[in-house]
Specification:
about 425 residues; two-stranded antiparallel ribbon; mainly alpha; hpI Integrase, Chain A; 3 domains; three-stranded antiparallel sheet; about 10% strand; 7 strands; single chain
Length: about 425
């Protein structure tokens, strides 16, 4: 992907080309953005890039005053401080290519995004409801995994997150399933802003969105092998395999706007970072692991890269467990594991009421215990208690309880299958 057509003519200058190519070796996104900003500044100032350098060399102090006037006029016209700051960064980069610099310290108002509000869980749910399946998958990768848009689809549209990067994702000709949840998501070095490979996780809710989206593509006849993009093009026959970074962000931007908000798409990554921040404060996740999941370099990254992007399976499972503890802070809907947890707690309470001890319950597999099995062991426990009480209790049809009470019996407990226990009068 070359420079933007509007500013491509600038690359005819050999010095501009060298500057651009040097930036592109680090990041094509940075090179493209700075070339575009240099072109806009040149138009505004009425000077071509070389003339800007000549003006600085001819009168260093006068040039700095010229820049101060440019900043003042830009802000008066309503340009955002972040835009002006990025223009200055570009200008400093261009002058630095010739060993020059802006000597005066230029003050700017507080950034526009300092006070940007991070969405609540309810607001994120509202955004997700305004997404189509593809946009919903993109949003979940950003909000739940903390992925940057350029990790989902790079600037050139020639690379991005692939099916093979979700190593626990299993795709057949018709269905999609996950061998483990939360499922691992690997961000390759070429997709990482910090240029290192790392991984994070996608929770139950995100897995469901991804499953629905990929299965819809399978029904349309698309072949999803390990090299296929996680986020594909809607338009058939596109020369690009992946969505470009700008298009990835635009998909989310439309949903955010439709939900009634004015946030940048990047705020979804901030949502993830904030959830991890809360989790860390509660002791649910360590700082190094939280940093690693967000794609920052640190102690875990060093260990991961030293071992050629491998960590022992037990460490990965510990990290998965730590991420699982954060799921309730990230997801907008209760996950299946959470629902199972509540069901198990309810079963435990019933067993305690029936007379089982905590150590006895601990030996039971509540997760696999069916309702019928629960009823059976409770019935046996209650009848056993009745027998151990010297047969002073008896099992009777629930509909006959009133009759027994009128005869002096005392109601003890209800049993499954329409029966009850009553105490024989002494």
């Amino acid at each position: 992907m070359g420079a933007h057509p509007k500013h491509k003519h600038l690359l005819k200058d050999i010095d501009v080309k060298r500057w651009y190519d040097n930036l592109a070796r680090g990041s094509i996104i940075t090179a493209e953005e700075r070339l575009r900003r240099l072109g806009r500044f040149s138009q505004t100032a009425g000077l071509d890039p070389k003339a800007i350098v000549g003006k600085k060399r001819a009168s260093p102090e006068g040039f700095d005053d010229f820049i101060l006037d440019y900043v003042a006029k830009s802000l008066e016209k309503g340009e955002k401080p972040a835009q002006v700051r990025n223009n200055l960064i570009t200008l400093r980069s261009w002058l630095g290519h010739f060993g020059l610099k802006i000597d005066k310290k230029i003050k700017l108002p507080t950034s526009d995004y300092v006070d940007e509000v991070v969405p609540t869980k309810e607001q994120l749910a509202q955004i997700l409801r305004h997404c189509d399946p593809r946009a919903r998958t993109i949003a979940s990768l950003m909000a739940f995994c903390g992925l940057r848009p350029e990790s989902i689809g790079n600037y050139t549209g020639m690379d991005g997150l692939r099916i093979g990067d979700l190593r626990e994702l299993e795709v057949t000709s018709r269905t999609v399933k996950f061998s483990k949840k939360p499922t691992i998501v690997v961000v390759r070095r070429t997709l990482s802003k910090a240029r290192h490979q790392y991984f994070t996780f996608l929770p139950e809710e995100g897995c469901q969105y991804l499953k629905e989206y990929l299965e819809a593509r399978l029904r349309k006849g698309e072949r999803l092998d390990s090299e296929a993009p996680i986020i594909g093009h809607v338009r058939e026959g596109s020369r690009l395999a992946f969505l470009r970074t700008t298009k990835v962000g635009w998909e989310v931007k439309l949903a955010v706007k439709a939900a009634g908000f004015t946030w940048r798409p990047y705020v979804l990554r901030s949502y993830c970072d904030t959830a991890f921040d809360i989790a860390e404060s509660r002791g649910l996740i360590s700082h190094p692991w939280r940093q690693f999941f967000m794609g920052h370099k640190g102690d875990i990254e060093a260990r991961y890269s030293t071992n050629k992007s491998r960590l022992p399976p037990d460490v990965i499972e510990e990290m998965r467990g730590a991420y699982r503890k954060c799921e309730s802070l990230l997801q907008t809907a209760k996950s299946e594991p959470e629902q199972e947890k509540f069901r198990d707690m309810f079963k435990e309470q019933l067993l305690l009421v029936a007379g089982f001890k905590q150590d006895q319950i601990a030996k039971m597999d509540l997760e696999k215990m069916s309702n019928e099995e629960l009823q059976k062991i409770m019935r046996e426990k209650l009848i056993g208690a009745m027998v151990n009480n010297g047969n002073k209790q008896k099992v009777v049809p629930a509909g006959d309880v009133r009759s027994y009470i009128s005869q002096g019996f005392e109601f003890v407990a209800s049993l499954p299958d329409g029966e009850a226990i009553v105490k024989v009068p002494s």
